[in-house]
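Support request from a user on the community tier.

User writes: "When I paste my structure tokens into the form, the page sometimes reloads and wipes my input. The last time it worked, I copied everything first. Here is what I submitted, just in case something in the input itself triggers the reload:"
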């Protein structure tokens, strides 16, 4: 046997074989684990999509606040808006913008966590797929 060929599982002594039953006792157990990983991946993607939708809503809110600030800054005495009212409205808009910025940062951090978790789940799926391929090839060679 050359070093570049992989022997059939049946040609390898039992003591040198992986105990596949120690990983998954049955095909059904492996299938259930695989389905669970797929479900968690779907949930993670849904959470990221929800976070992105929320982030878009916040950005729209910031844009509306900026438009409001511009409208207030263009107000005239004819509209009976005093300088103090404009300053108060501008301060309030700035406070709201600061709160929105904090929310954006929070959502961005949550999105990063979800993305990291999705990568972990994708790695799990890859390992499970590789395990399934090995398991199928072992079943065919035995």
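"...and here is what came back when it finally went through:"
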């Amino acid at each position: 046997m050359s070093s570049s060929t992989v022997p059939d599982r049946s040609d390898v002594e039992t003591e040198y074989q992986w105990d596949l039953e120690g990983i998954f006792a049955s095909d059904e157990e492996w299938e259930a684990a695989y389905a669970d990983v797929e479900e968690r991946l779907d949930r993670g993607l849904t959470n990221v999509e929800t976070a992105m939708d929320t982030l878009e809503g916040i950005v729209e809110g910031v844009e509306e606040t900026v438009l409001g600030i511009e409208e207030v800054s263009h107000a005239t005495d004819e509209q009976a808006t005093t300088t103090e009212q404009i300053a108060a409205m501008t301060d309030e808009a700035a406070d709201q913008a600061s709160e929105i910025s904090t929310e954006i940062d929070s959502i961005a951090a949550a999105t990063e966590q979800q993305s990291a978790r999705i990568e972990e789940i994708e790695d799990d799926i890859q390992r499970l797929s590789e395990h399934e391929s090995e398991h199928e090839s072992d079943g065919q060679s035995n």
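Agent notes: The reload is a front-end session timeout and is unrelated to the input. The two ends are 19 Å apart (CA to CA). Residues 83-141 form the longest helix (59 residues). Escalated to web team.
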